Structure formats: structure tokens, C-alpha cells
């Protein structure tokens, strides 16, 4: 494993004096160079390490230091075409060099989104913007929440102390916990669908005096805001899941890596942790929140671990897996917010009750994020296996305007043409076997008048922008793909179809992680289902 | 049997083997699968992806594409590595790479070797680039400021090999990556140049870089050499193997061979780059005799005749004991052997000593007292097996860079580590415990450590009982010591000492390393014996990953002592005071009798000269005037001598005082062997013909012996292999030594008759001397401090810097001098400011002996009251102020404790 020295030097000061947090705060200071150099000295590193990290993230880069407001560039806001207007409205209050961007702030239900003064907003009009900037008037991030089944994730916690009582019964009973989770067939909600119990089982078997639980709350998929919902409205479900995972495998520390574009989540989870401590509801376990600094690839588990450590979040090779060599090289259970949030219900009601929900290998429920093209955008807890059409009709309430397709499951998720919706149900298998992806179950609508070529350009630009730069296919390939799509729109250049296919294959089978490896899926969907629209940009052979 | 399949044929695989290693091994072809970012010496990384292969769970089943470099082979895996799909993938990746790579660098130019990248893309097949022209990095400015290392990142393919080599091989993080995605870029330090960065110039990045994005000034990587010669580096006791490229009889570049056991494809800036001294214009090229105060070039015959006549006259007039010889730890074993033989046999005196006297004599002496053998008990490779490292009085990162890098790697990865050093070195900073003692209190701190180990019941009773003697005396001695007093004396908190002692003693395997910070002291030999105690009382001897491992300063300190360059022991450490030993040597050398009286050590030679007892000094390759302490005293001694002969490469302070200068060939110009700090005898192979009219030291000695009336049995021509044969006959523990057997990676002595060598001594407590002996000592303040401490309240301690080799005769005549041109005085800022002295100001530093001027460098790496400097530059000549106190047993000078004061000029 590369970077062992940097990793161990960082781990000497561990989480309390965390290198990454230090780099982030030093980068934002006036004298950032001197501060960063001081830091490298204090951690016994060389300057290239801290500079390498600080130049990686949107929010720590020197050129973004003076940005006061960040306009959302997420897919949902892009297709809603609201952001030019927001930018213009913000120019009344800021110099254009003070206006930066953020890759999705989770207001996909409303769009017109931006981040200002450590809060996120959506504001459609000049007056709204003015009111926010001048009066700092806080606006709730409101959206509809409902469920079509037994609410597991969306049910209310009445009494926090009583909620945590369950943990007492689980102490010294690791095998039972694992068995229940195995029976439940809870699969990772980050997108990969890996059986959760297996991770616990792997970590429990590791002989180490230090283990970690890490919650991946870097919900970077534009269009998805389900993790944001859980953190801001169901924080204790997430924390409980981590705590129990810690009890089960013998880890005393839980780290939540929350993206910086979700300032409210960071605040609310922080308050929930303080509540736990104040009420003395957890023992021998501590939580730590790490604030992301603007990088999509940190949602990849090994990049996320590197990020916490203050290293450049370049994807690690596997094996070793995080269960063996995770945070600071120690055995680590790493899973997604929503996965952890399911644990309380499973252990309270039993694995079988959970497995009874859903369909086949996709058990339980899934949070679904609907964007603003739906008449009823919002956060819906849907039993696995529910037909998409049912979700659209019963919860989404149909579309506000005509839609030609949807991207489901984030930027690496499939582009589903409208006519395929009726064939699909909400579960790993249905979407997967039809050439799409459940992913984060976010739904971003593509209006009929939105050029598919522009959508593809956006996807490749996003990938090129967010690529960690480690593996060749992703680093160079996504950039060249973006360039070709741009050139084809801006000139009479036609993309060599054979070359484009070669590029997609190279990305798909050659990339180190799911970012480069996953982007060909939606692109290929588009080339298949929107061929007529795209043909003019390619050589015809 | 664990079986995996390559193209449907089953083979056994090793556990932990990657697919890449497996396929390479089975097909016996390093290029079976192309790679770009992979380097065997580096952790698997997986960035380039050209090593991708298809793997299936069943024969001809559905495949997945995996990068072979970081995917382990698994049971029943079907590997297809050369399918059309993979060939296409590789070619498509290369096409992407070529969109951001200079079109004129795809093929090597006519007179240059292909780079590894050029070879790889040729292997994959060079595609036409179909992509439209886009953004690229072709206009990045080259960085050529550093004397040796150059970068042209327009040729960079972002394989991260340099970044990883910097961290994983050298243990630095000078090279890094900035930005992300397509904008990722190699950076140096805080995005500066190599020259401005903290780069230690080891060149590991250059060697691993597969393109010419990183090159050295010699462009070694792409040289088309007439021949390459493997030899052993002369710059320290690590003994790196070097691969020297020669064109038209001149050295054009050096690489570190990956097959070298000692350095595994790595070396430092001295070994890799600092070779240009060898044909420097100032090289001595002709013999010279001082006539009327001026050196005149003479023929070899005239020089030899002059020396022989004068030496015979002196011998006849004053006796053989009026002549002394000083040999060099930089010369080969064969030459050291011949030199001591000449003094003992052809001159007839035991007045033979070498520069080990000024460095590691206490190690040899002390370890002999404790264990019976004065050499490293273990090998450096044991670092891979140890649980704790105890580093005492050494800064190997500077003095022994390749071993230093290995130790640093272990420190950074968090191994339990204890450093005892008055200086806060980089390693001390990284260590778990740094005991920053007052210079000169080594015995006190070791007594404390041993006291706590006993108090905390961490001794290995059964080892002590079974394999050692006199433990009880030692135990009751240290038990009775007052820790509070010693804590005040050493300046180290006793609780910290207790913790460090606990860490060392409770480790399953703990390894000790020490350097000149142990030996160059009044109580040097005693400190070595206490270090031996420490190992014995905790059972840290005779196993893998433990032991006492002196870091030898010069390349052949070990060998020179082995060869008998000591006034009290002959070749193979036999006591020359014993009549039976005298007879043994007389028989071996074919002479009637050997000299009987034990000879002078170097300091005694100088005193004897002053006293008029020593009249002639024959020096082979040492700058005694510059490197011995108390220069004025040395000069006074030299002035009294009737004859001074010096074999040298360059004019030095010592040659200036000589009567005859004999121009010697450098190590590039001769054959022989060096013995490194882990007893490894390695070949020195002649790379180029002797420069000018120079001769190898061995040849000169054979010629001189002949003039003095002794015919070397191996003949009148120096032939290293023949001399080795003689050595193997004389030295019992080198019985199996021969030129042929040494091979590429040498042999570690003892070497049995059948050629089997030895990685570890005293296995399972079977000490060379039968039983290990504990000694006990009280701390005693150095006479230097007792006598001069009041008048000169600061303690000066001297050391070395990475860029230079001792007196700098060689390194100052290379571009290393551009990297570090000055000796400076490290002073705690508060001490300086109290005297109104600012950073970089030139001050006068003075002692009882004299004074010199030197620029000040503020440093918090020294405690208040302590000053540090180096002795590389004759402009400063720091030994003018160092003193005559030496180790009680061996007289090794106390360079590490000098009572001084300093003032503004």
C-alpha cells in the first residue's frame, strides 16, 4: 500500500489533531502558505504533502479562497436551467470572482440552489436572494417526506434515551447482531449493494487493538439528498447504527465523513452527538465528524479514508480492503449513512421482519430522491421492488413538464428513457439487469428540450473535474471525452465513433475505481436510447 | 498445490503473489506483461493500468479485467494476459498518454538508449493518436537549477513512481502531486524547484522515472555506454553497489543496481553523483619530492629510491620503531593488508595504525571485551525483523544514507524507537523517545537505562545465567546509582529514561545501532561495553532482528582493522604481543621474525615525534593534519619528523608538509575489496585506467616493499585476487574467501573454508569468546570539561553532513560543493542573541588550543550550551580548536566534547 509513511505520521496525531482538518483550516487562512508549511513541519511531513492535499479540494484550493458564495452546479439544477439566473442575481451582491461553485448542495427538490455563509439555500427570485444575502434570513430546506410501507427510515424517534436502550441488549452479543443483519440481508445503500453483515464479520475477525467505524456521508451524487435527509432528520438512527457496529466489532471510534456542501447536516449531527454525550447514552465510544472539502471522489471508500487521513484522496488499490486495512491502516467498517440508519429497526424487529420487506435479494426499503420536475418532489421511503411507475404516479404526482428520460442513481447511474420506466422496479436486480443502476435511487429528470449531447458533456465534465487523477483512463480519458463532446457542439468536428467506443471501453474496463469505470454506463444508455438525437455529433459509420 | 492457470495451463502459485509476479515467473520474462507505473521496489499502485489482464473463474468463462500488478493470484483463477481485448486496452491507454506527451520523444534519438517508457510503448505498439488536439502539459518549464537533478515535466506521464520512490525508498516527501484530475502535476516541496526544495539529491526519483521527465546532469538513464562496471562505493560503511557507465575510458554516469543486496537499487548523492573528483584537474598525477621547500615532479624510481634510502638510513640510525605507518580505511582490504605487512615485515615495527583510530577503535575494542568479536553482530537486513530500534550517537540519515533511509522508514512507520543524541536530528524527531543528553554523558545515560531495566524486572534471566558472566557485579553497581543525580548530569528527565528503557527491554526483538557519538569520547570504549551489557541483559543478541550494530564511518573501517591495521593486533585480530602469534605471522609471511614491541597508536606517534622518538611517517591516504584533533599539536609533530611520505589523490594539509608525495589511483582505477559495516567483503572492480602517472596504493606498497628488501610473494604486480588468496591463508575467519566466490554481492565473514558466509554472530548466546562478559563503570566527566569547562563554558560537538565525506577531499571536488559549500556553527538562538550575535554572522570560536572563524546558523536542534559543527571545509579547519583528550582505552579523540566559547568578531 502506498503512502504508509504519510499515513502513519498523520495517525500519530490521529483524529483529535486531525491532519485533514488542519490542512483545511490552514488553506483558508490569509497566510495559507506559511500556515501549511508550519503544519507540514509539525506533522514531520514535507511541504509537498500538505500542498498536494490542499490543492485537491474545491474549498481548499488557493484560487477558491476568496469565494464567498457557491452556486450549485449539480445535475438537477443544471437540467432545471435555474443556475444562470441565480448567478446573475448573486452578481448584485458579489464580484464575479467571489462567486464559486459547488457540486450539488442537495436542493434538487427545488433547484435555484446555492451555498452562502455556511448555509444552503434555494431562491428563485432576485428579492429572495437579496433577502438572504442582506438579512441572512434562514430558510428551511423543506421538502415532502412520505413512505409507502412500514417506515423504517422515516419514522419519528420519540424518545432518544429509549431508542438507545436497545444497545444495552446488544453488548457482548456480537454473533447475534451479525446473524440478525445476515438474515435481514441488508445491503450497502451507497450503491454497490454489498451485504453489510459481511463487513462486520470481516472486521471482527481482525486482530487489532484499534478498529474504526466510518460512515460515508459524502453524498456527492447530484440528484440525491437522502443521506442529507437522514442526517438532518434522523441523525440518531445513523449514530446508533455506527455505535452498534462499534460494539459488535470492538471499535471505539466512529467517524462521519460529511460533505462540506451539507453544512446543516454537519451542524445537526454534531448536536445529536452532543446530546448523546450529555445524556450519557453511549459508553466507550466516541464520534468524530470530518467535514469534506469539496470532492466527489471522496465518496469512494478508499479515497474517503485517505481524505480523513489528510492524504490526497486518491483511490487505493484493493486488496487490502478497508476491513483489513482501513482508516490509518486499521480494520474499518465503512458503510453508507442509509445502511447504518437501517440497523436499529432490524435489531429491534429482527432480521426476518426486515427481509420480509422488499423483493428477492433486495430487502427492506430505499429512500428515493425526486427532483423538481415532479409535481411532488421530495424524499420517499419506498419498499424495494415497487414499480417505478407507481412511485412516479403515487408520490411524484407526475411531471410538471414533458420529460424524455431520467438519470437514476447519480452521475454514474443509468439514463432511462421514459418508455423503459414501466418495465422497472425499485431494486438492485431490476435496474441492474436492464442495464441501469439503483445507485443512490436519485431521480433526475431530463426535459425533452434538454440536448442529450449537453447532458453527456456535463457527465464527462463532472468526471474529468472530479477524477482523482491517479489512473490513466479516468484522468486523461474523461478529459478527452469531454473535449470531444464540446468540440462537436462548437464546431463542425465529428467524433470518431470507433474512437469514442474505444474510449468508453478503456474507461469501463481500465479504470481503477467506479468513477471512471462507471461513467460509460449512462453514456452508453444515451447512445442507445437517444441515438437519433446524438447521431449528428458522430461520424456515421 | 495452489493452482492458477495461464492461457488454460495450470501452474503452482506462491501465496501473496500478484498476477503480474506469477506470469513473469512462470514465463521467465520480466516483460511478459507491459507495465509503466510498476517498480518492483515500490508498493503496488495501479495507476497506468497497462498491465491489465482478463481473469475468469472457470476455463474460458466470462472474464473481468484486472490490473495484474495489484491483484493477487487466487486458487483456480484463469488468467488470459495477451488477449485481443487486452492488447486493445493497452494500446488505447497508450494513445491517451500520447495525447499529452511530446511527439518527438516517442522514439529514442539515434545515440541514446530507449527509456523504459519508450520500450513499453514499442512493446504495446505505438498507436496513431486519433484524438483532436486538446489541453496538454507540454509547455511546462523545465527545472534545471539543481546541480544534479533536472526535470522536464512536459515528458511526465504521471505514473507517480518518483513520488513513491521519494517516500518509499528514501523516506522523504519532497516530490508530491498537486491538483486533481487532468490537472494533477508533480510538485517539489511547496511547488518549488529541486534546488530550493529540501531534496536530499539521492536520485531515486531519477532512476525510477520511466521517461526523461526526471534526469540527472549526466543523463545516465539513456547513455549508450561502452561498458558498465559494477563496483563498491567508497563513501561510507554501507557498501552500496554501483553500476558505472564508461564511454571512451571515462566515467559518464552511475546507477544503483537493483540486484544489489546491500542497497537494492538505491544509493545517495555521493555514490550516485559525486564521481567527478576522479579526473579533476587537481588530481595528483606525478610523484613529487620537496626540494628546497618546493615540490618538484620526479619519476617513480627517483621517488622510491629517495624514500627507501631515507627510510633505511633512519632505521639504521634510530631503529625500526622510529618509523610509523598510517593506513587508510578508504583503501582496499588488499592494500591495507599490504600496508601493515610493509610496516611490520619490510620496515620491522608494529607502528601501524589507521583512521579507525579516530573513529571506531573503541567499538572494536569494547565489543571484543564483551563478546569476543569487534564487529556488527547482525546484518542490516535484520531491520525487517526487528520490533524496536535503539539508535545511539549516530545520524545515519546523513552519515550512512542508505541504511539511514531504511531506519527512517521504520521510524516513520511507527516502530518503537529510541534515539540518544545531544542533537535533535531528523531521526530523533521521528523517534518514540529522544534522550537529548549533554554531550559526554553517555555512560551516565546507559547506567540509568540499565538501572530501570533491572528495577522494572525486564532482564532476561535465563540468557544472563546461561551465556554471561559478572552480571551480579554490574547489577549491584547500577542498582546503587542515584537516578536524580544522573538525571541532572545528563539533562534528561528520569521518567523519560525509564519509559525508553521499558520500550527497549520489553520489545521482543530490539536492535542497537551506534556511531561516532559513542566512540569519540573519553569514555568511548566503556560506552560500547555498556551497550553490549544492554543487549546481553535483555537477551537481544544472537537472534534475527537484534544485536549491536556499529555504523562504520568510512567504507572500509571494518576491513582495515580486519587486515591488521592496528598496533596491537595483526591481520585477523591476533595479539602481536604473544610469541606464538609472532611466530604464526613470521611463518605466514616467510620471514625470520616479527617485531615484538606493540606499536604506537596515531596520537602516540604524534607525541613520539614531538619527543624525538619517531622520525619518519609513511601515510597512505589520510589527511592527518586536517582530521586529527588539535591541529597545532599535529603540525608541531610533523615539523619534527625527518621524513614524511604521503600517498594521496589530491594536495591536502598533510601533503603540504610531506617530503614525498606519491600520486595514488582512486577506487575507480583499481581492483580490490571493501568490507562494509556488516562484515560483508565486496568487490571493488576497476572501472577506468589509472589517471595520469598514478598507481594503485597496493602497487605502490609492493614497489616500496621491494625497495626495502621484501619481495611480496604474489609478485611485483599488484593483483587483488592473488593478495586475497594470501589473506585467506593468514586470517582464519576468512579461510573460504576468494575473488571468484565474492560474486556480485560479496560474503560476510566468518567465511568457512567451503565459502559459506555468516549473517549473524554469537547465535543463541554462543559468544566468540565463549561467554559474554558484563562490565560496569561510573560516569566520569571528561578531562576536557574538568580542565577547561569553566573558562570555556560551551560544549562543541562535531559531526558530518550528507553532502560531504569527512575532510571533503573528494566531495569538495564535485558538484556536492555547490549544494553545501560551508561549514557552519549551529547555535541555539538564545545563546547567540545573548552575545548579540545574529543568524549567519561570522563568529570566532575558541578553545584552549586556538580559534577559528565560522558563520553561525541558528538552530533549535541543539540545546542551550551546546554547539555543533562539521569538519568538511579547510576554510574553517575546526580541528584547530579540538582537543587532545581521547578514549581511555583506545585513544580515539574526543571530537564530540570540546570546551569552547565564541564571540562576535
CATH architectural category of the largest domain in chain B: 3-Layer(aba) Sandwich
Structural class estimated from helices and strands of chain B: alpha/beta
Number of domains of chain B: 5
Largest sheet: number of strands, sense, barrel closure of chain B: 7 strands, mixed
Spell out the blueprint of helices and strands:
The complex is a heterodimer of chains A (541) and B (905).
Chain A: H1 4-13, H2 19-27, H3 32-42, H4 47-54, E1 69-72, H5 75-80, H6 83-91, E2 99-102, E3 113-116, E4 119-122, H7 126-135, E5 144-147, H8 160-170, H9 174-184, H10 196-204, E6 212-217, H11 226-233, H12 235-249, E7 253-258, H13 263-278, E8 286-291, H14 301-309, E9 332-336, H15 337-349, H16 351-356, E10 358-359, E11 362-363, E12 365-370, E13 378-383, H17 388-396, E14 403-408, E15 415-417, H18 418-421, H19 428-433, E16 442-447, H20 452-466, H21 472-490, H22 497-510, H23 514-518, H24 520-529, H25 531-534
Chain B: E1 3-6, E2 9-12, H1 19-27, E3 52-56, E4 63-67, E5 78-80, H2 84-98, H3 116-124, E6 149-151, H4 161-170, E7 175-178, E8 185-188, H5 204-208, E9 214-216, E10 227-232, E11 241-247, E12 250-255, H6 269-273, E13 288-291, E14 294-297, H7 300-318, E15 323-327, H8 333-347, E16 352-354, H9 361-370, E17 388-392, H10 396-399, H11 401-412, E18 416-420, H12 426-430, E19 433-435, H13 442-455, H14 461-467, E20 468-469, H15 471-479, H16 483-490, H17 494-506, E21 510-514, H18 516-519, H19 524-537, E22 547-550, H20 557-562, H21 579-589, H22 602-610, E23 616-620, H23 624-627, H24 631-640, E24 643-648, H25 653-656, E25 660-663, E26 672-675, E27 680-684, H26 697-707, H27 720-730, H28 739-742, E28 747-748, E29 772-773, H29 783-788, E30 794-799, H30 816-819, E31 825-827, H31 829-834, E32 842-846, E33 851-858, E34 866-870, E35 898-904
Helix pairs in contact in B: 8-26, 8-27, 9-19, 13-16, 13-17, 13-19, 22-24
Summarize the structure.
The complex is a heterodimer of chains A (541) and B (905). Chain A is an alpha/beta fold and 541 residues long.
Amino acid at each position: 500500500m502506498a503512502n504508509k509513511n504519510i499515513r502513519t505520521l498523520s495517525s500519530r496525531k490521529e483524529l483529535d489533531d486531525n491532519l485533514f482538518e488542519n490542512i483545511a483550516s490552514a488553506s483558508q487562512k490569509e497566510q495559507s502558505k506559511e500556515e501549511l508549511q508550519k503544519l507540514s513541519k509539525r506533522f514531520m511531513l514535507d511541504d509537498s504533502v500538505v500542498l498536494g492535499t490542499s490543492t485537491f479540494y474545491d474549498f481548499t484550493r488557493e484560487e477558491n479562497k476568496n469565494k464567498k458564495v457557491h452556486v450549485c452546479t449539480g445535475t438537477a439544477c443544471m437540467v432545471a436551467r435555474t443556475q444562470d439566473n441565480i448567478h446573475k442575481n448573486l452578481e448584485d451582491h458579489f464580484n464575479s470572482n467571489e462567486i464559486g461553485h459547488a457540486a450539488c448542495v442537495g436542493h434538487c427538490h427545488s433547484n435555484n440552489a446555492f451555498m452562502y455563509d455556511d448555509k444552503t439555500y434555494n431562491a428563485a427570485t432576485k428579492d429572495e436572494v437579496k433577502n438572504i444575502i442582506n438579512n441572512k434570513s434562514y430558510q428551511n430546506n423543506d421538502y415532502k417526506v412520505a413512505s409507502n410501507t412500514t417506515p423504517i427510515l422515516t419514522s419519528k424517534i420519540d424518545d432518544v434515551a429509549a431508542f438507545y436502550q436497545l444497545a444495552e441488549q446488544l453488548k457482548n452479543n456480537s454473533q447475534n447482531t451479525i446473524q440478525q443483519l445476515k438474515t435481514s440481508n441488508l445491503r450497502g445503500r451507497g450503491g454497490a449493494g454489498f451485504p453489510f453483515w459481511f463487513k462486520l464479520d470481516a472486521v471482527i475477525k481482525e486482530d487489532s487493538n484499534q478498529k474504526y467505524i466510518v460512515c460515508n456521508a459524502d453524498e456527492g451524487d447530484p440528484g440525491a439528498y437522502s443521506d442529507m435527509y437522514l442526517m438532518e432528520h434522523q441523525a440518531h438512527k445513523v449514530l446508533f447504527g455506527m455505535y452498534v457496529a462499534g460494539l459488535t466489532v470492538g471499535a471505539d471510534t466512529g467517524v462521519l465523513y460529511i460533505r462540506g456542501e451539507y453544512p446543516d447536516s454537519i451542524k445537526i449531527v454534531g448536536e445529536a452527538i452532543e446530546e448523546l454525550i450529555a445524556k450519557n447514552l453511549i459508553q466507550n465510544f466516541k464520534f468524530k465528524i470530518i467535514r469534506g472539502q469539496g470532492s466527489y471522489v471522496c465518496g469512494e471508500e478508499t479515497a474517503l479514508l485517505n481524505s480523513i487521513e489528510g492524504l490526497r484522496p486518491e483511490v487505493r488499490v484493493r486488496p487490502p480492503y478497508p476491513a483489513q486495512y482501513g482508516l490509518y491502516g486499521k480494520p474499518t467498517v465503512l458503510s453508507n449513512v442509509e445502511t447504518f440508519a437501517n440497523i436499529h429497526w432490524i435489531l429491534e424487529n429482527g432480521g426476518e421482519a426486515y427481509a420480509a420487506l422488499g423483493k428477492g435479494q433486495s430487502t427492506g426499503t430505499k429512500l428515493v430522491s425526486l427532483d423538481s420536475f415532479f409535481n411532488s418532489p421530495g424524499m420517499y421511503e419506498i419498499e424495494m421492488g415497487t414499480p417505478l411507475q407507481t412511485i412516479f404516479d403515487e408520490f411524484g404526482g407526475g411531471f410538471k413538464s414533458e420529460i424524455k428520460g431520467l438519470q437514476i442513481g447519480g452521475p454514474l447511474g443509468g439514463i432511462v428513457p421514459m418508455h423503459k420506466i414501466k418495465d422497472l422496479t425499485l431494486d438492485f436486480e431490476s435496474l441492474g439487469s436492464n442495464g441501469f443502476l439503483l445507485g443512490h435511487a436519485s431521480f433526475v429528470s431530463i426535459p425533452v428540450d434538454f440536448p442529450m449531447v449537453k447532458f453527456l458533456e456535463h457527465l464527462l465534465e463532472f468526471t474529468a473535474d472530479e477524477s482523482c487523477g491517479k489512473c490513466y483512463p479516468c484522468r486523461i480519458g474523461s478529459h478527452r471525452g469531454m473535449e470531444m463532446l464540446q468540440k462537436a457542439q462548437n464546431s463542425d468536428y465529428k467524433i470518431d465513433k470507433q474512437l469514442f467506443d474505444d474510449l468508453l471501453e478503456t474507461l469501463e474496463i481500465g479504470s481503477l475505481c467506479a468513477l471512471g469505470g462507471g461513467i460509460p454506463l449512462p453514456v452508453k444508455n444515451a447512445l442507445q436510447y437517444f441515438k437519433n438525437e446524438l447521431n449528428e455529433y458522430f461520424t456515421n459509420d | 498445490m495452489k493452482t492458477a492457470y495461464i492461457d488454460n495451463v495450470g501452474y503452482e502459485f506462491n501465496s501473496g503473489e500478484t498476477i503480474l509476479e506469477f506470469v513473469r515467473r512462470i514465463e521467465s520474462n520480466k516483460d511478459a506483461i507491459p507495465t509503466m507505473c510498476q517498480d518492483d521496489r515500490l508498493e503496488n499502485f495501479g495507476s497506468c493500468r497497462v498491465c491489465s489482464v482478463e481473469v475468469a473463474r472457470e476455463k474460458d468463462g466470462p472474464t473481468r479485467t484486472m490490473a495484474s500488478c495489484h491483484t493477487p493470484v487466487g486458487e483456480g483463477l484463469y488468467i488470459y494476459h495477451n488477449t485481443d481485448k487486452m492488447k486493445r486496452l493497452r494500446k488505447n491507454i497508450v494513445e491517451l498518454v500520447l495525447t499529452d506527451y511530446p511527439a518527438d520523444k516517442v522514439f529514442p534519438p539515434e545515440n541514446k538508449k530507449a527509456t523504459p517508457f519508450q520500450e513499453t510503448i514499442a512493446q504495446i505498439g505505438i498507436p496513431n493518436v486519433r484524438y483532436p488536439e486538446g489541453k496538454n502539459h507540454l509547455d511546462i518549464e523545465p527545472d534545471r537549477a539543481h546541480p544534479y537533478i533536472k526535470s522536464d515535466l512536459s515528458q511526465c506521464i504521471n505514473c507517480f513512481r518518483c513520488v513513491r520512490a521519494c517516500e518509499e525508498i528514501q523516506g522523504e516527501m519532497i516530490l508530491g502531486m498537486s491538483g486533481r484530475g487532468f490537472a494533477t502535476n508533480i510538485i517539489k516541496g511547496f511547488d518549488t524547484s529541486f534546488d530550493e526544495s529540501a531534496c536530499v539529491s539521492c536520485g531515486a526519483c531519477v532512476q525510477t522515472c520511466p521517461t526523461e521527465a526526471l534526469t540527472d546532469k549526466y543523463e545516465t538513464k539513456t547513455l549508450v555506454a561502452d561498458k558498465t562496471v559494477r563496483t563498491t562505493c567508497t563513501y561510507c560503511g554501507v557498501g552500496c553497489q554501483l553500476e558505472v557507465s564508461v564511454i571512451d575510458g571515462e566515467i559518464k554516469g552511475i546507477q544503483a543496481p537493483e540486484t544489489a543486496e546491500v542497497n537494492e537499487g538505491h544509493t545517495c548523492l555521493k555514490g550516485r553523483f559525486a564521481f567527478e573528483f576522479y579526473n579533476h584537474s587537481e588530481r595528483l598525477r606525478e610523484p613529487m619530492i620537496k626540494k628546497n621547500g618546493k615540490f618538484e615532479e620526479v619519476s617513480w624510481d627517483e621517488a622510491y629510491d629517495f624514500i627507501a634510502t631515507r627510510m633505511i638510513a633512519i632505521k639504521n640510525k634510530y631503529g625500526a620503531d622510529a618509523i610509523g605507518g598510517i593506513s587508510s580505511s578508504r583503501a582496499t582490504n588488499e592494500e591495507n593488508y599490504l600496508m601493515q605487512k610493509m610496516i611490520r615485515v619490510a620496515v620491522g615495527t608494529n607502528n601501524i595504525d589507521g583512521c579507525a583510530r579516530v573513529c571506531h577503535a573503541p567499538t572494536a575494542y569494547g565489543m571484543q571485551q564483551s563478546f569476543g568479536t569487534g564487529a556488527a553482530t547482525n546484518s542490516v537486513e535484520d531491520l525487517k525483523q526487528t520490533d524496536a530500534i535503539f539508535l545511539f550517537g549516530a545520524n545515519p540519515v546523513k552519515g550512512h544514507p542508505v541504511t539511514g533511509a531504511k531506519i527512517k522508514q521504520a521510524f516513520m512507520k511507527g516502530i518503537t524507537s529510541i534515539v540518544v543524541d545531544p542533537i535533535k536530528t531528523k531521526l530523533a524527531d521521528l523517534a518514540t523517545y529522544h534522550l537529548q543528553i549533554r554531550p559526554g554523558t553517555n555512560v551516565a545515560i546507559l547506567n540509568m537505562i540499565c538501572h530501570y531495566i533491572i528495577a522494572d524486572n525486564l532482564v532476561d534471566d535465563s540468557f544472563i545465567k546461561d551465556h554471561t558472566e559478572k552480571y551480579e557485579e554490574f547489577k549491584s553497581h547500577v542498582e546503587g546509582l542515584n537516578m536524580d543525580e544522573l538525571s541532572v548530569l545528563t539533562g534528561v528527565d528520569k521518567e523519560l529514561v525509564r519509559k525508553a528503557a521499558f520500550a527497549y527491554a520489553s520489545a521482543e526483538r530490539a536492535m542497537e545501532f551506534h556511531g561516532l557519538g559513542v566512540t569519540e569520547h573519553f569514555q568511548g570504549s566503556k560506552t560500547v561495553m555498556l551497550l553490549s551489557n544492554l543487549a546481553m541483559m535483555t537477551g537481544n543478541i544472537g537472534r534475527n532482528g537484534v544485536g549491536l550494530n556499529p555504523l562504520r564511518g568510512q567504507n572500509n573501517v571494518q576491513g582495515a582493522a580486519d587486515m591488521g591495521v592496528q598496533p596491537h593486533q595483526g591481520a585477523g585480530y591476533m595479539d602481536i604481543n604473544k610469541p606464538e602469534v609472532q611466530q604464526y605471522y613470521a611463518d605466514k609471511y616467510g620471514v625470520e621474525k616479527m617485531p615484538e614491541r606493540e606499536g604506537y597508536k596515531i596520537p602516540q606517534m604524534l607525541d613520539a615525534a614531538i619527543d624525538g622518538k619517531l622520525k619518519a611517517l609513511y601515510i597512505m591516504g589520510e589527511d592527518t593534519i586536517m582530521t586529527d584533533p588539535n591541529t597545532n599539536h599535529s603540525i608541531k609533530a610533523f615539523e619534527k619528523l625527518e621524513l614524511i611520505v604521503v600517498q594521496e589523490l589530491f594536495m591536502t594539509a598533510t601533503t603540504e608538509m610531506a617530503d614525498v608525495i606519491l600520486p595514488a589511483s582512486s577506487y575507480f582505477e583499481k581492483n580490490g575489496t571493501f568490507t562494509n559495516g556488516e562484515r560483508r567483503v565486496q568487490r571493488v572492480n576497476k572501472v577506468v585506467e589509472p589517471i595520469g602517472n598514478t598507481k594503485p596504493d597496493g602497487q605502490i606498497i609492493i614497489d616500496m616493499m621491494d625497495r626495502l628488501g621484501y619481495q611480496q610473494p604474489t609478485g611485483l604486480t599488484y593483483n587483488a585476487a592473488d593478495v586475497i588468496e594470501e589473506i585467506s591463508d593468514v586470517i582464519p575467519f576468512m579461510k573460504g574467501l576468494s575473488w571468484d566466490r565474492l560474486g556480485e554481492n560479496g560474503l560476510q565473514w566468518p567465511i568457512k573454508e567451503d565459502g559459506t558466509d555468516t549473517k549473524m554472530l554469537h547465535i543463541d548466546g554462543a559468544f566468540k569468546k565463549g561467554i559474554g562478559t558484563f562490565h560496569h563503570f561510573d560516569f566520569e566527566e571528561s578531562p576536557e570539561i574538568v580542565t577547561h569547562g569553566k573558562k570555556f563554558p560551551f560544549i562543541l560537538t562535531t559531526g558530518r553532513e550528507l553532502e560531504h565525506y569527512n575532510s571533503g577531499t573528494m566531495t569538495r571536488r564535485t558538484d556536492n560543493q555547490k549544494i553545501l559549500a560551508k561549514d557552519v556553527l549551529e547555535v541555539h538562538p538564545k545563546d547567540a542573541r545573548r552575545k548579540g550575535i545574529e543568524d549567519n554572522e561570522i563568529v570566532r570560536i575558541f578553545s584552549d588550543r586556538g580559534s577559528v572563524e565560522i558563520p553561525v546558523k541558528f538552530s533549535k536542534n541543539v540545546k542551550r550550551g551546546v554547539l555543533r559543527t562539521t569538519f568538511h571545509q579547510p576554510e574553517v579547519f575546526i580541528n584547530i580548536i579540538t582537543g587532545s583528550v581521547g578514549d581511555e582505552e583506545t585513544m580515539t579523540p574526543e571530537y564530540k566534547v570540546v570546551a569552547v566559547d565564541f564571540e562576535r568578531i
